[in-house]
């Protein structure tokens, strides 16, 4: 079985230069990053279509590394595209019902995902209550990892390189072969 391509799926407003997704995208080999036309006023249909196109560009299976609204958009993918996904790391999922600008992504699908997944959420994420993230994980059939006081698991909450996330990605079957050295420290 060949190594899957890692597909980075950023959330609302994209992931800036110091964000773990951006760092991974620039440093890992076998990686594709989803680029949306409109990061500020996201709409479900074009976002999901762009994620699907990116997955379809990958040779073979993919492992998803999604953040925030990217998690929710991933769950909206058509079944034929989901069949290309080997596994998914779904970090700090958003709550589209709490933020008007994200409302097009509601309702969130509450069906079991057809691939292994891990939902990582924080006890104090301002964009999604941890109880809701846990409900997503149960509905999606995902393992659930709760981090204490980790905010939105982004640069603002001190998660740059985020080695724990990289280890989780590797546990899901991604081959972590850096094209540039990755630091070992948190």
What are the key terms here?
186 residues; alpha/beta; six-stranded parallel beta sheet
Detailed description of the structure:
There is one protein chain. The chain is of the alpha/beta class. Helices cover 28% and strands 17% of the residues. The protein has a 6-stranded parallel β-sheet, sandwiched between helices. The longest helix is centred in the N-terminal third of the chain and has 14 residues, at 44-57. The chain starts with a strand and ends in a 15-residue tail after the last helix. It is built from 6 helices and 6 strands. The protein has helices at residues 20-27, 44-57, 69-75, 79-82, 130-140, 163-171; strands spanning 5-9, 31-33, 62-67, 85-91, 117-122, 143-147.
Briefly say what this structure is.
The protein is of the alpha/beta class.
Helix-strand makeup class: alpha/beta
Largest sheet: spatial strand order: 2-1-3-4-5-6
Strand content: 15-25%
Q: In terms of per-residue confidence, which ranges show pLDDT below 50 for 5 or more consecutive residues?
A: none
* Mean pLDDT metric: 94
Main β sheet profile = 6 strands, parallel
